[in-house]
């Protein structure tokens, strides 16, 4: 069995780094500083602590995790086009590597009162901007909403064009995963999973890869992360979705949170296939699972001193995340 090392990251013992034109020395945090969030930003990850005027940038260099601290007003961000009009509160753009420039959730509405993402404002439309300058919007009927914040954009079927993955919800049937595609004819719905079939129940995608090794892309999703806590793997051939397996006892979301990446992928057993790293049902254990050959297998179960509370962010070969007790941890292979 592949074994993993779990290390607490000492926030008071940082190391100077020099990369990509940056030569920074560490600024020690106060003893009272605790982790509030971990999020990706470019090639690094950013750690938000109780010091509101500071952020910690994390990078992997010289075989170890290295940290530097900056004033919030001194941090540079990528040059993004302004968001479109009528985006939902807290909207974040999905970015594509091929045909899609950005995907946004727009047309705020309160017609679906659930609040799983912290408020009762959901999206009535999906807006996609292509890299050739065109933009298309897909509007939902009054009977459903997009219950999401950031669409996921990737070439799921390997044809060179990006697909857009988001979550559509309706009161009686709950949520379902929806896959869209934009082309010369506009923005269209390709396929959806069946609904979770419980009123106001939800789902949250984890990631996309060929998890079983059959050469066809798959999508991992946690169905009902607050109630039933089921992991499902769907095969996507460019036109259809097929449920090919999964397991129980997984949760990748906290009710009311806008963190949508409390799960990650890594090749944990070096078999050339992506494996999944997800919190257990109570978020007090990290489960590392493989779906090679079409069967879910636990590679490791790593107990934690407190529940996972932040995104799980890749930094080099490590996965970095925060716990409810305010500590920051990294996961790496021994």
Short note summarizing the structure:
This protein is an all-beta fold. It has strands spanning 4-8, 17-19, 22-24, 35-41, 44-49, 54-61, 64-71, 100-109, 122-130, 135-139, 145-146, 152-154, 163-170, 174-183, 186-192, 203-209, 218-223, 230-236, 241-248, 264-266, 275-279, 285-290, 297-303, 313-315, 318-322, 328-333.
- CA gyration radius, whole angstroms: 20 Å
The N- to C-terminal Cα distance equals 12 Å
Low-confidence stretches: 10-32, 72-79
Number of helices: 0
Order of helices and strands: EEEEEEEEEEEEEEEEEEEEEEEEEE
Largest sheet: 5 strands, antiparallel
Tell me roughly what share of residues is in helical segments: under 10%
The count of DSSP E runs of length 2 or more, i.e. the number of strands, is 26
Structural class, from secondary structure content?
Answer: mainly beta
Q: Tell me the β content.
A: over 45%
Shape: globular
The overall pLDDT, averaged over residues, is: 84
């Amino acid at each position: 069995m592949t074994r993993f090392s779990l290390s607490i990251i000492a926030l008071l013992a940082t190391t100077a780094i020099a990369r990509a034109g940056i030569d920074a020395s560490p600024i020690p945090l106060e003893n009272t500083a605790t982790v509030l969030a971990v999020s990706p930003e470019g090639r690094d990850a950013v750690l938000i602590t109780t010091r509101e005027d500071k952020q910690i940038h994390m990078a992997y260099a010289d075989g170890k995790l290295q940290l530097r601290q900056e004033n919030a007003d001194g941090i540079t961000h990528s040059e993004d086009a302004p968001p479109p009009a009528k985006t939902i509160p807290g909207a974040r753009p999905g970015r594509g590597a091929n045909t899609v420039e950005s995907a946004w959730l727009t047309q705020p509405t309160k017609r679906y009162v659930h609040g799983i993402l912290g408020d009762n404002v959901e999206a009535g439309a999906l807006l996609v901007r292509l890299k050739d300058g065109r933009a298309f919007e897909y509007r939902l009927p009054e009977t459903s909403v997009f219950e999401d914040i950031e669409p996921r954009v990737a070439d799921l079927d390997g044809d060179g064009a990006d697909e857009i993955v988001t979550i559509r919800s309706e009161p009686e049937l709950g949520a379902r995963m929806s896959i869209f595609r934009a082309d010369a004819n506009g923005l269209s719905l390709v396929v959806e999973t069946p609904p979770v079939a419980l009123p106001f129940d939800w789902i949250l995608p984890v990631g996309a890869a060929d998890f079983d090794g059959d050469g066809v892309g798959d999508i991992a999703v946690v169905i009902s992360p607050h109630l039933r806590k089921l992991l499902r793997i769907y095969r996507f051939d460019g036109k259809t979705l097929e449920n090919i397996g999964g397991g129980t006892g997984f949760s990748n979301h906290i009710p009311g949170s806008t963190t949508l990446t409390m799960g990650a992928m890594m090749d944990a057993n070096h078999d050339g296939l992506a494996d999944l790293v997800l919190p257990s049902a109570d978020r007090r254990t990290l489960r590392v699972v493989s779906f090679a050959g079409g069967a879910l297998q636990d590679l490791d179960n790593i107990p934690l001193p407190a529940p996972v509370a932040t995104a799980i962010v890749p930094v080099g070969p490590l996965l970095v995340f925060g716990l409810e007790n305010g500590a920051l941890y990294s996961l790496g292979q021994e």
